[in-house]
Design brief:
The protein has 339 residues and is α/β, with parallel strands linked by helices. It folds into two domains: 113 residues, 3-Layer(aba) Sandwich (Rossmann fold); 186 residues, 2-Layer Sandwich (Dihydrodipicolinate Reductase, domain 2). An eight-stranded mixed sheet has the order 8-9-10-7-11-12-13-14. A six-stranded parallel sheet has the order 3-2-1-4-5-6, with helices on both faces. Strand 13 and strand 14 form a beta hairpin. Helix 1 packs across helix 8 and helix 5 runs antiparallel to helix 9. The chain starts with a strand and ends in a 9-residue tail after the last helix. It binds nicotinamide-adenine-dinucleotide (NAD) and (2S)-2,3-dihydroxy-3-methylbutanoic acid. This is Gfo/Idh/MocA family oxidoreductase. It comes from Jiella sonneratiae. InterPro entries: Gfo/Idh/MocA-like_OxRdtase_N, Gfo/Idh/MocA_oxidoreduct, GFO_IDH_MocA-like_dom, NAD(P)-bd_dom_sf. Pfam families: GFO_IDH_MocA (PF01408), GFO_IDH_MocA_C3 (PF22725).
Protein backbone atom coordinates (compact mmCIF):
# COMPACT_ATOMS: atom_id res chain seq x y z
CA UNK A 1 0.00 0.00 0.00
CA UNK A 2 1.29 3.43 -0.96
CA UNK A 3 0.73 6.23 1.51
CA UNK A 4 1.41 9.95 1.84
CA UNK A 5 2.03 11.69 5.14
CA UNK A 6 0.77 15.21 5.84
CA UNK A 7 2.47 17.19 8.62
CA UNK A 8 6.21 16.62 9.14
CA UNK A 9 6.43 17.91 12.72
CA UNK A 10 7.47 16.57 16.11
CA UNK A 11 5.44 13.36 16.25
CA UNK A 12 5.39 12.47 12.54
CA UNK A 13 9.04 11.46 12.83
CA UNK A 14 7.94 8.46 14.91
CA UNK A 15 5.25 7.58 12.38
CA UNK A 16 7.79 7.63 9.54
CA UNK A 17 10.23 5.42 11.45
CA UNK A 18 7.38 2.99 12.11
CA UNK A 19 6.19 2.97 8.47
CA UNK A 20 9.72 1.99 7.40
CA UNK A 21 9.32 -1.21 9.46
CA UNK A 22 5.84 -2.24 8.26
CA UNK A 23 5.86 -4.85 5.49
CA UNK A 24 3.58 -4.17 2.54
CA UNK A 25 3.09 -0.47 3.25
CA UNK A 26 5.23 2.61 2.83
CA UNK A 27 5.20 6.39 2.59
CA UNK A 28 5.98 7.61 -0.94
CA UNK A 29 5.25 11.33 -0.56
CA UNK A 30 5.34 13.99 2.13
CA UNK A 31 3.52 17.27 2.64
CA UNK A 32 4.06 20.17 5.00
CA UNK A 33 3.28 23.86 4.62
CA UNK A 34 6.61 24.56 6.37
CA UNK A 35 9.39 24.23 3.79
CA UNK A 36 12.18 23.65 6.33
CA UNK A 37 10.40 20.82 8.18
CA UNK A 38 9.41 19.25 4.87
CA UNK A 39 12.96 19.30 3.50
CA UNK A 40 14.54 18.04 6.71
CA UNK A 41 12.07 15.16 7.05
CA UNK A 42 12.39 14.22 3.36
CA UNK A 43 16.16 14.11 3.75
CA UNK A 44 16.03 12.08 6.98
CA UNK A 45 13.76 9.38 5.51
CA UNK A 46 14.96 9.50 1.88
CA UNK A 47 11.50 10.43 0.51
CA UNK A 48 11.90 12.44 -2.69
CA UNK A 49 8.35 13.46 -3.55
CA UNK A 50 7.45 16.50 -1.46
CA UNK A 51 4.61 19.03 -1.53
CA UNK A 52 3.62 22.22 0.29
CA UNK A 53 -0.04 21.72 -0.55
CA UNK A 54 -2.01 18.57 0.40
CA UNK A 55 -4.57 18.88 -2.43
CA UNK A 56 -1.78 19.17 -5.01
CA UNK A 57 -0.11 16.09 -3.55
CA UNK A 58 -3.26 13.98 -3.60
CA UNK A 59 -3.94 15.06 -7.23
CA UNK A 60 -0.41 14.22 -8.37
CA UNK A 61 0.22 10.93 -6.55
CA UNK A 62 -1.34 7.49 -6.94
CA UNK A 63 -2.06 6.47 -3.35
CA UNK A 64 -3.95 3.99 -1.20
CA UNK A 65 -3.93 5.93 2.07
CA UNK A 66 -3.04 9.18 3.73
CA UNK A 67 -1.56 9.57 7.23
CA UNK A 68 -2.54 12.94 8.74
CA UNK A 69 -0.06 14.03 11.43
CA UNK A 70 -0.98 17.71 11.68
CA UNK A 71 -2.48 19.41 14.75
CA UNK A 72 -6.26 19.44 15.18
CA UNK A 73 -7.38 22.63 13.33
CA UNK A 74 -6.47 21.11 9.93
CA UNK A 75 -7.93 17.63 10.58
CA UNK A 76 -11.43 18.15 9.19
CA UNK A 77 -10.44 19.76 5.86
CA UNK A 78 -7.66 17.20 5.32
CA UNK A 79 -9.85 14.18 6.17
CA UNK A 80 -12.60 15.49 3.87
CA UNK A 81 -10.05 16.06 1.11
CA UNK A 82 -8.77 12.48 1.48
CA UNK A 83 -12.36 11.18 1.39
CA UNK A 84 -13.02 13.07 -1.85
CA UNK A 85 -9.94 11.34 -3.29
CA UNK A 86 -11.33 7.98 -2.06
CA UNK A 87 -8.32 7.17 0.14
CA UNK A 88 -8.10 5.22 3.38
CA UNK A 89 -7.21 7.64 6.20
CA UNK A 90 -5.35 7.70 9.51
CA UNK A 91 -5.85 10.90 11.47
CA UNK A 92 -3.95 11.90 14.60
CA UNK A 93 -5.71 12.60 17.89
CA UNK A 94 -7.39 14.80 18.99
CA UNK A 95 -9.55 13.75 16.04
CA UNK A 96 -11.58 16.99 15.92
CA UNK A 97 -12.27 20.25 17.73
CA UNK A 98 -16.02 19.58 17.95
CA UNK A 99 -18.37 16.59 17.85
CA UNK A 100 -19.98 18.12 14.76
CA UNK A 101 -16.65 18.13 12.90
CA UNK A 102 -15.89 14.58 14.03
CA UNK A 103 -19.26 13.24 12.84
CA UNK A 104 -18.82 14.98 9.47
CA UNK A 105 -15.36 13.40 9.07
CA UNK A 106 -16.67 9.92 9.84
CA UNK A 107 -19.56 10.39 7.40
CA UNK A 108 -17.21 11.64 4.66
CA UNK A 109 -14.85 8.64 4.77
CA UNK A 110 -17.62 6.08 5.31
CA UNK A 111 -19.50 7.66 2.39
CA UNK A 112 -16.42 7.09 0.23
CA UNK A 113 -16.36 3.43 1.33
CA UNK A 114 -12.90 3.75 2.86
CA UNK A 115 -11.37 3.00 6.27
CA UNK A 116 -10.82 5.82 8.78
CA UNK A 117 -8.67 5.14 11.84
CA UNK A 118 -7.80 7.64 14.55
CA UNK A 119 -4.17 7.40 15.68
CA UNK A 120 -5.30 6.70 19.27
CA UNK A 121 -2.23 4.69 20.22
CA UNK A 122 -2.14 4.57 24.04
CA UNK A 123 -4.40 1.49 24.26
CA UNK A 124 -1.88 -0.15 21.89
CA UNK A 125 1.11 0.28 24.22
CA UNK A 126 2.28 -3.27 24.91
CA UNK A 127 2.10 -2.99 28.72
CA UNK A 128 -1.39 -1.49 28.60
CA UNK A 129 -2.44 -4.06 26.00
CA UNK A 130 -1.24 -6.92 28.18
CA UNK A 131 -3.39 -5.57 31.02
CA UNK A 132 -6.42 -5.11 28.70
CA UNK A 133 -6.10 -8.66 27.35
CA UNK A 134 -5.72 -10.03 30.90
CA UNK A 135 -8.92 -8.34 32.07
CA UNK A 136 -10.86 -9.19 28.89
CA UNK A 137 -9.74 -12.82 29.37
CA UNK A 138 -11.49 -12.93 32.77
CA UNK A 139 -8.36 -13.34 34.95
CA UNK A 140 -9.77 -11.17 37.77
CA UNK A 141 -13.43 -11.99 37.21
CA UNK A 142 -15.91 -9.18 36.55
CA UNK A 143 -14.30 -5.73 37.08
CA UNK A 144 -16.26 -3.36 39.32
CA UNK A 145 -13.69 -0.59 39.96
CA UNK A 146 -10.86 0.88 37.93
CA UNK A 147 -8.36 3.70 38.05
CA UNK A 148 -6.30 4.81 35.07
CA UNK A 149 -3.76 7.39 36.10
CA UNK A 150 -1.15 9.56 34.36
CA UNK A 151 0.73 11.96 36.64
CA UNK A 152 4.01 13.62 35.74
CA UNK A 153 6.03 16.83 35.84
CA UNK A 154 7.73 16.19 32.48
CA UNK A 155 8.28 19.28 30.31
CA UNK A 156 6.06 18.48 27.33
CA UNK A 157 6.09 22.11 26.22
CA UNK A 158 9.66 22.13 24.86
CA UNK A 159 8.82 19.51 22.20
CA UNK A 160 5.23 20.64 21.66
CA UNK A 161 5.07 24.42 22.37
CA UNK A 162 1.44 24.64 21.16
CA UNK A 163 0.38 22.69 24.25
CA UNK A 164 1.07 25.76 26.40
CA UNK A 165 -0.99 28.06 24.18
CA UNK A 166 -4.45 26.52 23.89
CA UNK A 167 -7.41 27.33 26.13
CA UNK A 168 -7.72 23.54 26.60
CA UNK A 169 -4.71 21.43 27.53
CA UNK A 170 -4.49 18.23 29.51
CA UNK A 171 -7.89 16.62 28.87
CA UNK A 172 -7.80 17.42 25.14
CA UNK A 173 -4.18 16.33 24.60
CA UNK A 174 -3.44 13.62 27.16
CA UNK A 175 -6.66 12.86 29.00
CA UNK A 176 -8.13 11.80 25.67
CA UNK A 177 -5.69 8.86 25.64
CA UNK A 178 -6.37 7.93 29.26
CA UNK A 179 -10.13 8.13 28.78
CA UNK A 180 -9.73 5.90 25.73
CA UNK A 181 -7.83 3.34 27.83
CA UNK A 182 -10.69 3.39 30.36
CA UNK A 183 -13.12 2.69 27.48
CA UNK A 184 -10.93 -0.19 26.30
CA UNK A 185 -11.08 -1.75 29.79
CA UNK A 186 -14.61 -0.95 30.92
CA UNK A 187 -16.68 -0.05 27.86
CA UNK A 188 -19.08 2.79 27.13
CA UNK A 189 -19.75 5.53 29.66
CA UNK A 190 -23.19 6.64 30.85
CA UNK A 191 -22.20 9.53 33.14
CA UNK A 192 -19.06 11.57 33.80
CA UNK A 193 -18.14 14.20 36.40
CA UNK A 194 -14.86 16.15 36.34
CA UNK A 195 -12.81 18.78 38.07
CA UNK A 196 -9.87 20.66 36.50
CA UNK A 197 -7.15 23.02 37.68
CA UNK A 198 -4.26 24.98 36.27
CA UNK A 199 -1.17 24.77 38.49
CA UNK A 200 1.54 25.92 36.05
CA UNK A 201 1.09 29.71 35.66
CA UNK A 202 3.03 29.76 32.37
CA UNK A 203 0.38 27.89 30.36
CA UNK A 204 -3.18 28.84 29.33
CA UNK A 205 -5.09 25.61 29.82
CA UNK A 206 -5.72 23.16 32.65
CA UNK A 207 -2.84 20.86 33.64
CA UNK A 208 -4.71 18.74 36.23
CA UNK A 209 -7.95 16.83 35.65
CA UNK A 210 -9.81 14.26 37.75
CA UNK A 211 -12.73 12.42 36.19
CA UNK A 212 -15.28 9.98 37.63
CA UNK A 213 -16.88 7.68 35.06
CA UNK A 214 -19.97 5.47 35.43
CA UNK A 215 -19.73 2.79 32.74
CA UNK A 216 -22.83 1.25 31.19
CA UNK A 217 -21.66 -2.24 32.18
CA UNK A 218 -21.59 -1.30 35.88
CA UNK A 219 -17.92 -0.40 36.45
CA UNK A 220 -17.02 2.87 38.20
CA UNK A 221 -13.66 4.26 37.15
CA UNK A 222 -11.44 7.20 38.02
CA UNK A 223 -9.31 8.75 35.29
CA UNK A 224 -6.79 11.21 36.69
CA UNK A 225 -4.19 13.22 34.78
CA UNK A 226 -1.60 15.76 35.83
CA UNK A 227 1.41 17.53 34.36
CA UNK A 228 1.95 19.34 37.68
CA UNK A 229 3.10 16.31 39.68
CA UNK A 230 6.67 16.62 40.90
CA UNK A 231 7.66 13.04 41.65
CA UNK A 232 10.98 11.22 41.54
CA UNK A 233 11.43 9.09 39.56
CA UNK A 234 9.04 10.73 37.12
CA UNK A 235 6.83 8.16 35.42
CA UNK A 236 6.34 9.98 32.09
CA UNK A 237 4.80 8.68 29.87
CA UNK A 238 3.44 5.65 31.71
CA UNK A 239 -0.26 5.10 32.30
CA UNK A 240 -0.77 3.33 35.62
CA UNK A 241 -3.75 1.06 36.16
CA UNK A 242 -5.56 -0.44 39.16
CA UNK A 243 -8.56 -2.71 38.69
CA UNK A 244 -10.62 -4.60 41.24
CA UNK A 245 -12.67 -7.53 39.96
CA UNK A 246 -14.97 -10.08 41.57
CA UNK A 247 -12.14 -12.67 41.64
CA UNK A 248 -9.04 -10.54 42.18
CA UNK A 249 -7.05 -7.44 41.30
CA UNK A 250 -4.73 -6.18 38.57
CA UNK A 251 -2.13 -3.45 39.04
CA UNK A 252 0.06 -1.93 36.33
CA UNK A 253 2.55 -0.02 38.46
CA UNK A 254 5.42 2.37 37.73
CA UNK A 255 8.32 0.66 35.97
CA UNK A 256 5.98 -1.52 33.88
CA UNK A 257 5.31 -3.96 36.73
CA UNK A 258 2.13 -5.95 36.19
CA UNK A 259 0.73 -7.66 39.29
CA UNK A 260 -2.27 -9.98 39.15
CA UNK A 261 -3.68 -11.40 42.37
CA UNK A 262 -6.60 -13.75 41.82
CA UNK A 263 -8.08 -16.87 43.34
CA UNK A 264 -5.31 -17.13 45.95
CA UNK A 265 -2.41 -16.75 43.51
CA UNK A 266 -0.10 -13.86 42.62
CA UNK A 267 1.88 -13.20 39.46
CA UNK A 268 4.27 -10.29 39.05
CA UNK A 269 5.57 -9.72 35.51
CA UNK A 270 7.93 -7.17 33.99
CA UNK A 271 6.01 -5.87 30.96
CA UNK A 272 8.59 -3.26 29.89
CA UNK A 273 8.24 -2.33 26.22
CA UNK A 274 11.06 -3.19 23.83
CA UNK A 275 13.39 -0.34 22.86
CA UNK A 276 13.02 -0.16 19.05
CA UNK A 277 16.23 0.74 17.19
CA UNK A 278 15.00 4.29 16.50
CA UNK A 279 13.29 4.84 19.86
CA UNK A 280 14.47 6.98 22.75
CA UNK A 281 13.64 6.63 26.45
CA UNK A 282 11.31 7.64 28.02
CA UNK A 283 9.19 7.84 24.84
CA UNK A 284 9.85 4.23 23.82
CA UNK A 285 6.50 2.84 25.03
CA UNK A 286 4.65 5.42 22.93
CA UNK A 287 6.99 4.88 19.96
CA UNK A 288 6.42 1.13 20.02
CA UNK A 289 2.65 1.66 20.07
CA UNK A 290 2.92 3.79 16.92
CA UNK A 291 4.29 0.83 15.00
CA UNK A 292 1.59 -1.44 16.47
CA UNK A 293 -1.32 0.85 15.59
CA UNK A 294 -0.04 1.46 12.06
CA UNK A 295 0.34 -2.31 11.58
CA UNK A 296 -3.24 -2.69 12.89
CA UNK A 297 -4.45 -0.22 10.20
CA UNK A 298 -2.71 -2.21 7.44
CA UNK A 299 -4.03 -5.53 8.82
CA UNK A 300 -7.59 -4.19 9.04
CA UNK A 301 -7.56 -2.95 5.44
CA UNK A 302 -6.18 -6.31 4.31
CA UNK A 303 -8.87 -8.20 6.23
CA UNK A 304 -11.73 -5.79 5.47
CA UNK A 305 -12.21 -5.12 9.22
CA UNK A 306 -12.96 -1.90 11.09
CA UNK A 307 -9.96 -0.77 13.17
CA UNK A 308 -10.49 -0.93 16.94
CA UNK A 309 -9.83 2.82 17.13
CA UNK A 310 -11.84 3.72 14.02
CA UNK A 311 -13.23 7.21 13.48
CA UNK A 312 -16.68 5.93 14.49
CA UNK A 313 -15.29 4.38 17.69
CA UNK A 314 -13.37 7.55 18.51
CA UNK A 315 -16.60 9.60 18.56
CA UNK A 316 -17.21 7.99 21.97
CA UNK A 317 -13.77 8.95 23.31
CA UNK A 318 -14.18 12.47 21.99
CA UNK A 319 -17.58 12.71 23.69
CA UNK A 320 -15.86 11.92 27.01
CA UNK A 321 -13.46 14.83 26.45
CA UNK A 322 -16.37 17.17 25.74
CA UNK A 323 -18.28 15.82 28.73
CA UNK A 324 -15.29 16.40 31.01
CA UNK A 325 -14.90 20.04 29.96
CA UNK A 326 -18.64 20.62 30.31
CA UNK A 327 -18.75 19.00 33.75
CA UNK A 328 -15.72 20.94 34.98
CA UNK A 329 -17.27 24.21 33.75
CA UNK A 330 -20.78 23.63 35.16
CA UNK A 331 -20.12 21.45 38.20
CA UNK A 332 -22.72 19.01 36.85
CA UNK A 333 -22.58 15.34 35.92
CA UNK A 334 -22.80 14.98 32.13
CA UNK A 335 -24.13 12.18 29.91
CA UNK A 336 -21.65 11.81 27.01
CA UNK A 337 -24.37 10.13 24.95
CA UNK A 338 -26.26 13.46 24.86
CA UNK A 339 -23.37 15.34 23.23
P1 LIG B 1 3.81 19.86 15.13
O1 LIG B 1 3.29 21.26 15.18
O2 LIG B 1 5.21 19.60 15.56
O3 LIG B 1 3.67 19.29 13.65
C1 LIG B 1 2.54 19.53 12.84
C2 LIG B 1 3.04 19.82 11.44
O4 LIG B 1 1.92 19.93 10.55
C3 LIG B 1 3.81 21.14 11.31
O5 LIG B 1 5.07 20.90 10.71
C4 LIG B 1 2.90 22.01 10.44
O6 LIG B 1 3.65 22.90 9.59
C5 LIG B 1 2.16 20.97 9.63
N1 LIG B 1 0.86 21.39 9.09
C6 LIG B 1 -0.15 22.01 9.77
N2 LIG B 1 -1.22 22.20 8.95
C7 LIG B 1 -0.87 21.68 7.75
C8 LIG B 1 -1.55 21.55 6.50
N3 LIG B 1 -2.80 21.99 6.33
N4 LIG B 1 -0.91 20.95 5.48
C9 LIG B 1 0.37 20.49 5.64
N5 LIG B 1 1.07 20.59 6.79
C10 LIG B 1 0.45 21.17 7.84
O7 LIG B 1 2.78 18.98 15.96
P2 LIG B 1 3.04 17.55 16.63
O8 LIG B 1 3.51 17.75 18.02
O9 LIG B 1 3.81 16.69 15.70
O10 LIG B 1 1.53 17.03 16.76
C11 LIG B 1 0.80 16.65 15.61
C12 LIG B 1 -0.42 15.86 16.08
O11 LIG B 1 0.04 14.67 16.71
C13 LIG B 1 -1.27 16.59 17.13
O12 LIG B 1 -2.63 16.40 16.83
C14 LIG B 1 -0.88 15.95 18.46
O13 LIG B 1 -1.92 15.93 19.41
C15 LIG B 1 -0.56 14.55 17.99
N6 LIG B 1 0.37 13.82 18.88
C16 LIG B 1 0.05 12.54 19.14
C17 LIG B 1 0.85 11.79 19.97
C18 LIG B 1 0.45 10.37 20.22
O14 LIG B 1 1.06 9.66 21.02
N7 LIG B 1 -0.57 9.87 19.55
C19 LIG B 1 1.99 12.35 20.56
C20 LIG B 1 2.31 13.67 20.23
C21 LIG B 1 1.49 14.40 19.38
O1 LIG C 1 0.74 11.52 23.45
C1 LIG C 1 0.48 12.70 23.27
O2 LIG C 1 -0.55 12.98 22.73
C2 LIG C 1 1.48 13.75 23.68
C3 LIG C 1 1.83 13.76 25.14
C4 LIG C 1 2.28 12.42 25.69
C5 LIG C 1 2.90 14.79 25.40
O3 LIG C 1 0.69 14.15 25.87
O4 LIG C 1 0.99 15.00 23.28
Amino acid sequence: MKGALIGCGFFAQNQLHAWAEIPGAGIVALCDTDEAKLAETARRFGIERTYRDAAAMLEAETLDFVDIATTVPSHRPLVELAARMRLHVICQKPFAETMEDARAMVAAVEGAGRVLMVHENFRWQSAVRRAIDTVRGGAIGEPFFGRVSFRSGYDVFSGQPYLAEGERFIIEDLGIHILDIARAFFGDVDRLAATTRRVNPKIRGEDVATMLLSHAGGVTSVVDCSYATKRVPDTFPQSLVEIDGTDGTLRLDAGYRLTIQARGEESVVDVSPPLLSWAERPWHNIQESVRTIQQHFVDCIGAGREPETSGRDNLKTLALVEAAYRSAATGETVRPGDL
